[in-house]
Automatic annotation (TrEMBL):
Keywords for the protein's UniProt record, in alphabetical order: Transferase
Tagged with keyword Membrane: no
Top-level division of the source organism's lineage: Bacteria
Biological source species: Clostridium intestinale URNW
Keyword Transferase assigned: yes
One Pfam family here: Glycos_transf_1
GO terms classed as biological process: lipopolysaccharide biosynthetic process
Domain Glycosyl transferase family: 180-343
Protein name: Glycosyltransferase
PANTHER family: GLYCOSYLTRANSFERASE WBBK-RELATED
Length: 592
């Protein structure tokens, strides 16, 4: 790929605008993306930043890379960045920015106004807080000006894919080989647990690792802990007190201080058998992949990247945030499992090189940016759908129909449940495998917004959903009309009262979930349903098992199978009753 690109006669400019860049940023994503895009993908690339001290990495690891320093005109990074863009926007082909914040949004607006043909790559560098973000129409309009938006973890990728009207791609952070090195052999490794970072930051929770090591120390006598990185002055009192209380650990917990040389740092990774990160929050720590490419077994707190970097715990394990005892047990477990550590050493290196190599990662970035057919618009976004659902609810609320109350409350208290994606893996979808009697042309009594019926129709089932809520039926039909024709043919949603309406055709079977706990006297309902279901047809009824006492809409509460059976058998033949304890529901298969 690089060889082909290097034949190009004109280099496009790739500019990472990040005023806070210091030397440590150069070997993280801030510096590495621009560096690799220049070295391997033929861009004239650079970082634009304040002069934040010395940059020794430019003299060795990133020799030849360019930083353009901007003046502190106002001393405000956002304003000074704007001054830079005013002077230079027309000379920038790709503007690379970080974070979903007002600063980035204002820079995007200004850049695209000054250079409409220029491209913007926004790297979100996001943690869990982005799930609380409000994506206003004005914010979405600005994001649509980007050519590429990426996020570092699969969890947030899946989340943003559902809620944003712009596409977000999954692009993790990576590692880069600044010098030639051989594959790590397990025999090189020693009994070291290491952690790497800025030591003493609250978010890094380094004290958790020290306390866990202390709990485990009598069971791991031949192991040492190395804590690598600059230590904050505010953390020194804790360290001093820790060693006063535990003088026996002074030779077993080693603080190396900052290791600037990437070669020296790599030697520490190569020697370590276990790498541990105790962070309280992470977007995607580069140290994960540096440890992985050097064959370390990974122990991580339960932060967003943990499952990604361990490949769902295949190459490591995960403990709760701030859980000292849990981490201590994992330390004991894996320090005593030599076979697991040895096998992991080779396999995690393969995993890292296949998934977290900056050269390959930047190849994906290059392809997205330069694909003329790539559109930033997300046609499958549920946020757009949700706006229409909200409009349906708000327009129907004025009618004050008591049967619509549930949807009005849901909009206020649980809006996620109004989206199709919320129901995609709902447990009720799998219950039909256990009840083959519910087949043929099926009636869903109390279908609500029809989400489950739509997923069942996608599987090939024929379903007619009825409800007393006009809002519910309108939402159901809105979602139905977004389906392909084959699914639409298998679905029908209508506003019906079974005690008054009579269908044109009878149904083979019926089902009803989370309905009968709301009905005080079900006798008339069953009499009405007999006019809808063929004689001898089955109905599957599902109700909550012993919860939701504070829900004033629930007039019945069923604590066990017998209570539901006794309640129903006055009106219909009850064939069998089963409890699903995992999902807290009781199901009754009945026959007309």
């Amino acid at each position: 790929m690089s060889e082909v690109l290097n034949k190009a006669t004109k280099k496009e400019t790739f500019v990472t605008l990040f005023p806070e860049t210091d030397n440590s940023h150069l070997t993280k994503d801030v510096g590495m993306i621009a560096y690799v895009m220049g070295k391997h993908y033929n861009y004239d690339s650079k970082i634009v930043a304040y002069n934040n001290g010395s940059y020794p990495y430019l003299e060795k690891e990133l020799l030849g890379f360019n930083i353009e320093f901007i003046e502190r005109v106002k001393g405000d990074p956002e304003v000074d960045g704007m001054y830079y863009l005013i002077d230079n926007a027309e000379k920038i082909d790709v503007l690379h920015l970080f974070h979903l914040n007002d600063r980035s949004l204002n820079w995007i607006k200004l850049f695209k106004k000054l250079n409409p043909q220029g491209k913007v790559y926004l790297k979100l560098d996001a943690n869990m807080y982005i799930t609380y973000e409000e994506f206003s129409d004005s914010k979405i309009d600005i994001l649509k000006k980007c050519s590429l938006i990426t996020v570092e973890t699969k969890y947030l990728y899946d989340f943003l894919k559902r809620v944003l009207e712009v596409k977000v791609e999954y692009i993790p952070n990576g590692f880069y080989n600044f010098f030639e090195s051989q594959k790590v052999q397990y025999e090189e490794k020693e009994n070291f647990i290491i952690t790497v970072g800025r030591i003493g930051l609250y978010l890094k929770a380094n004290e958790i690792l020290m306390e866990a090591f202390k709990l485990a120390e009598d069971k791991i006598k031949d192991w040492k802990l190395k804590i690598i990185g600059p230590v904050l002055n505010t953390f020194n009192p804790y360290i001093d007190q820790f060693f006063l209380d535990n003088p026996n650990l002074k030779d077993r917990i080693i603080f190396t201080g900052e290791i600037v040389s990437k070669k020296e740092l790599e030697e520490e990774y190569r020697k370590a058998k276990i790498f541990c990160l105790t962070s309280r929050s992470e977007s995607f720590g580069i140290v994960y992949v540096e440890a992985a490419k050097n064959g370390c077994f990974l122990l991580s707190s339960n932060v967003l990247p943990a499952l990604d970097v361990t490949d769902n715990k295949k190459y490591g394990d995960i403990f709760g945030v701030d859980q000292i005892e849990e981490l201590s047990k994992l330390i004991v477990k894996y320090t005593q499992d030599e076979e697991r550590l040895k096998n992991n050493c080779e396999e995690i290196q393969k995993f890292a090189y296949s998934n977290f190599n900056w050269i390959d990662i930047c190849n994906k970035i290059y392809n997205y940016i330069n694909d003329e057919n790539y559109s930033i618009i997300n046609e499958n976004c549920t946020n757009k759908e949700f706006k229409e659902v909200r409009r349906i609810i708000e327009s129907g609320a004025s009618k004050n129909n008591i049967n619509d109350r549930g949807f009005i409350d849901r909009l206020k208290y649980n809006p996620e449940a109004l989206k199709m994606s919320f129901w995609e893996n709902h447990f009720e979808l799998s219950c039909f495998d256990k009840y083959p009697e519910i087949s043929g042309k099926i009636l869903d009594f109390g279908c609500g917004s029809g989400n489950l019926d739509i997923y069942l129709a996608r599987k090939g089932m024929f379903i007619h959903g009825i409800d007393l809520s006009e809002i519910g039926i309108n939402i159901a039909n809105y979602y139905k009309h977004k389906e392909v024709d084959e699914v639409k043919k298998r679905l029908c949603f209508t506003l019906n009262d079974v005690t008054k309406d009579v269908p044109k055709d009878l149904y083979d079977s019926a089902w009803s979930t989370n309905v009968f706990e709301h009905i005080l006297y079900p006798g008339p309902i069953f009499e009405g349903l007999r006019k809808w279901i063929k004689p001898g047809g089955y109905i599957l009824i599902s109700v909550p098992l012993g919860y939701a006492y504070n829900d004033s809409n629930h007039v019945h509460h069923f604590m066990n199978n017998d209570e539901l059976k006794v309640h129903l058998e006055k009106y219909i033949d009850v064939i069998k009753v089963d409890s699903d304890l995992n999902n807290k529901v009781i199901r009754a298969l009945c026959r007309f």
